[in-house]
Design the sequence.
């Protein structure tokens, strides 16, 4: 009897998994499994590219591809988004009212900036986590000549190094354009240091001192007063700004929040940190940013999870137990400026170690930006 | 004997280097009603210093720090 696997979300994780899955099934010469990928648009966006869009270093089109062309034969793509997931019925209801039954479901619906959680954010802040927002910020930065650019960070957010990279690249761009003298950059961070990862925080501290970037710690936005141009914080200190770049707090996808007994109130799906199965439901796996795991919401963690999830899914199809385990591995490149980069790697049991920035690593990162499309096809 | 305070919600942030235990705690405190005690498990030695520091600044109440096997269990009550 044919079994059906439904993957909801055709982003980094969903696309990579779908391709690797049909490849593995072909190798096993199985034609009794149907793979359905539920997407919600014709195009696939390489999200890290938005950093370069916001700083006017690249145009958005550079980071777009047709979703259909990224898929291997054997993946059935539908572009009608999922409206509701029904665990009891083992089915997904699509936005046109049609119903898709599954034997196994993979939730890969990502994490999404919420511009409304913090009062005044929409009116007072710019951000770069969606394409329209990145373009708005690009245009505002173009015209900005003097005053304070304040960078504030909401929790949780995807790609924990993006705010720091943005800050360093912003400094670099403003210097090249000879605008930096009249502009103060004030970077703030929610916890006791400049970044979650201690080696990255130390490295950032040195970079900031060399480049005259100001910083404050223990800063968590509570409310933004767009008229007065002030950020009020949970810690009771106010910060004024001339241009505010805010990282919006993220939530799980709307479909998770709209489905019964699925996610927590913010839409994250309770996930076993090792097997990547949904807690309490062996027919559901969770991939990438959609999980409630205390790990970085990043393309790299998603990439490492794909191999584990694939192994467990193939075992489930055979009626055996999930034995493959994810060890929390993460790997991040960090842009220092337009010529240098560094990287950091760690997992549940191994804390991150410092690595020096170098021009060579910058080229690796640049190459990575281009090879993303190959990794989606399961080539890398 | 001191009264034992029970957590209403527990977060297992052992092995979490990024975003890390304190960010997990702040994220959770935003979700829960005032009065809730959230307990965070951390294997990062720095948490025993950072979490109380943040709680003081943000005027949340640190209720306990318990040393467990290989990690600390830190309880914070949401007071505002
Ligand atoms: C500015 C920026 C910079 C970044 N930089 C880096 C970096 O340098 N390194 C790194 O590792 N990561 C980086 N990331 C993070 C990375 O892009 C994400 O962590 C990664 O894409 C997560 O993969 P995912 O598959 O879980 O989610 P996504 O790739 O976001 O995919 C989720 C997909 O599900 C879709 N979806 C949601 N709801 C539905 C529905 N109801 N029906 C159908 N589809 C649905 C969404 O539209 C989306 O296409 C960055 C992100 C941003 C925004």
Sequence:
């Amino acid at each position: 009897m044919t079994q059906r696997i439904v993957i909801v979300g055709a982003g980094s994780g969903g696309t990579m998994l779908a391709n690797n899955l049909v490849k593995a099934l072909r190798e096993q010469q199985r034609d009794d499994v149907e793979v359905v990928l539920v997407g919600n648009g014709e195009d696939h966006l390489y999200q890290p590219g938005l950093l370069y869009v916001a700083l006017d270093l690249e145009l958005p089109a550079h980071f777009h591809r047709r979703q259909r062309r990224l898929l291997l034969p054997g993946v059935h793509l539908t572009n009608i988004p999922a409206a509701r997931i029904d665990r009891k019925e083992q089915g997904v209801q699509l936005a046109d009212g049609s119903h898709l039954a599954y034997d196994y479901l993979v939730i890969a619906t990502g994490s999404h900036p919420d511009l409304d959680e913090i009062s005044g954010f929409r009116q007072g802040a710019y951000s770069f986590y969606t394409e329209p927002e990145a373009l708005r910020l690009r245009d505002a930065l173009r015209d900005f000549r003097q005053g304070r650019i304040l960078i504030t960070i909401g929790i949780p957010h995807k790609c924990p190094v993006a705010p720091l990279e943005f800050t360093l690249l912003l400094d670099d761009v403003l210097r090249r354009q000879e605008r930096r003298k009249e502009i103060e950059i004030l970077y703030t961070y929610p916890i006791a240091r400049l970044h979650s990862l201690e080696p990255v925080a130390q490295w950032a501290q040195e970079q900031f001192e060399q480049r005259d970037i100001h910083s404050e710690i223990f800063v968590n936005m509570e409310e933004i007063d767009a008229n007065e141009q002030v950020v009020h914080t949970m810690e009771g200190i106010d910060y004024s700004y001339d241009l505010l770049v805010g990282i919006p707090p993220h939530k799980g996808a709307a479909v998770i929040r709209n489905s019964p007994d699925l996610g927590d109130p913010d839409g994250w799906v309770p996930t076993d940190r090792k097997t990547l199965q949904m807690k309490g439901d062996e027919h559901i796996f969770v991939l990438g940013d959609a999980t409630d795991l205390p790990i970085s919401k990043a393309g790299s963690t998603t990439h490492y999870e794909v191999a584990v999830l694939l192994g467990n899914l193939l075992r489930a199809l055979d009626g055996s137990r999930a034995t493959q385990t994810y060890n929390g591995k993460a790997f991040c490149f960090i842009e220092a400026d337009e010529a240098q980069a560094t990287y950091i790697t760690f997992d549940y049991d191994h804390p991150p170690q410092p690595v020096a920035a170098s021009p060579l690593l910058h080229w690796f990162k640049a190459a990575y930006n281009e090879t993303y499309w190959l990794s989606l096809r399961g080539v890398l | 004997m001191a009264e034992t305070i029970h957590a209403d919600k527990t977060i297992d942030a052992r092995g979490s280097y990024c975003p890390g235990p304190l960010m997990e705690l702040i994220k959770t405190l935003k979700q829960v009603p005032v009065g809730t005690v959230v307990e965070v498990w951390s294997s990062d030695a720095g948490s025993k210093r950072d979490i109380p520091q943040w709680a003081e600044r943000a005027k949340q109440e640190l209720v306990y720090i318990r040393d467990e096997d290989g990690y600390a269990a830190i309880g914070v009550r949401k007071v505002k």
